[in-house]
């Protein structure tokens, strides 16, 4: 994936991305060590597997607490990131293509426009140069734009060759409200998945301890009595 420019990054989002990358790498290593330790009955690897699981579980709990207690700060930083993305959105900019496609996908799937609302797009340099007679296609609620989910669409019959966001056939809901609504509607599913993952991790920790004890018992019985 292409990297976002410096002005479109934030410390919290960067930290979150690095944590996710670290957890993903640790999970792959953990799975390999767990399989190797269980097949060959190597106690130290099973112990390392247990430690990795415990670290991942603690990290997940800590991340959840940070998100809960710092949600307003994260919301402000995300608002700044999205604001810069909208301001500099350019369908011809290949360097930022991946990031722009991701934002178009969000607007299309959630049926929203802008972060706080469609007015955010009035800061876009290209739309300003076109006197607001075009609008982001991914915001459209018009049937004629159903098969266009990126770039800009031209407004039909603008008055005196100019327009405002109020003249656009776009969704009124901002994506901030749309995302919050989606999270509330799917809160049960999200909590269920998180709980299921935590239970599986706990079972893995219990299983690794049990295998370590069994290996220790077998090693003890193999020791010749004097």
Automatic annotation (TrEMBL):
Keywords: Membrane, Transmembrane, Transmembrane helix. It holds the Pfam family Tetraspanin. It is a multi-pass membrane protein. The keyword Transmembrane helix applies. Belongs to the tetraspanin (TM4SF) family. PANTHER family: CD82 ANTIGEN (PTHR19282:SF44), TETRASPANIN (PTHR19282). This is Tetraspanin. It comes from Scopus umbretta (Hammerkop).
